[in-house]
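Example 3.2
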Amino acid sequence: MNILITGGGGFIGSYLTEELVNRKDNICVVDDFSTGNTENIKHLIGKSNFTFINGSVLDKDLMSKLIDKSDAIYHLAAAVGVKYIMENQLKSIHLNVYGTEIILELASKRKQKVMISSSSEVYGKNGQVPYSEDSDRLMGPTTTSRWSYACAKALDEFMALAYFREKGLPIIIPRFFNICGPKQTGQYGMVTSFCQKCPSGRTYYHIWRR
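Structure, written as tokens:
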């Protein structure tokens, strides 16, 4: 299978890329490393079933060529991290909304399967536990920059579902919560985990939002 992964050089994307390369699928990664890292995928360079392209999902001509050659698309490219989004609000909204629109529009022509990565931020301030995709959402005020990310990701979901209903595009939408582990950076305000040893020798974890 020919698979396109946008944002494949990022924390989550690089693990997905490595797994699918090891499964012997033909993998093409496009990433501009605005928040990703070349170190995450450099060990895959040279493998016969791996191709890397330094580019942006906002480049519609590039994405058209890559999607035409793909059987499935994992769309992980996005502006991420509370700190980054608050400091680059216009850029983040544009990338997270228009980038997803480009992917959906191009994929709908050949009905390729598309995974659109979303976020737990979409649940907003809803305190109902357990969470449900059918629950009402409560967002904060537009004067608070961080809510722009939640709204952009919600709009991505609305668009994806509309393409499914109106054009029959097969889609999957996972909502990621606070994921942490090796290769993650706290540079952009992600959740970071530090592992230490207790005097007893047991391992314990500190996890917090930077």
